[in-house]
Design a protein that fits this description.
This protein has one domain. The chain contains four helices and two strands. By secondary structure, the protein is α+β, with helices and mostly antiparallel strands.
């Protein structure tokens, strides 16, 4: 992502990797949904009936370092 941003003319001012926090959130969400089901108002309302499977997949990918959640602050 850094290379793509730089190639697009952006200077990276800050980079925050929140993958560990994301993994904790998704693991907790999957655990809650496993015991109580998805809450009435949740991402499931937007993403549909496969949301529980999606959340499990994201948690697994984060745990296995296949994906990361990173935010950037850039200057044009």
């Amino acid at each position: 992502m850094r290379k793509l941003l730089a190639a697009a003319g952006f200077a990276i001012e800050d980079e925050t990797d929140s993958s560990k926090e994301s993994l904790q959130w998704f693991e907790a969400a999957v655990a809650r949904m496993g015991s109580a089901g998805a809450p009435t108002v949740s991402l499931q309302a937007v993403l549909g009936d496969d949301f529980v499977l999606m959340a499990r997949t994201v948690a697994g990918n984060l745990a296995d370092d296949r994906i990361r959640t990173v935010s950037y602050i850039c200057r044009a």
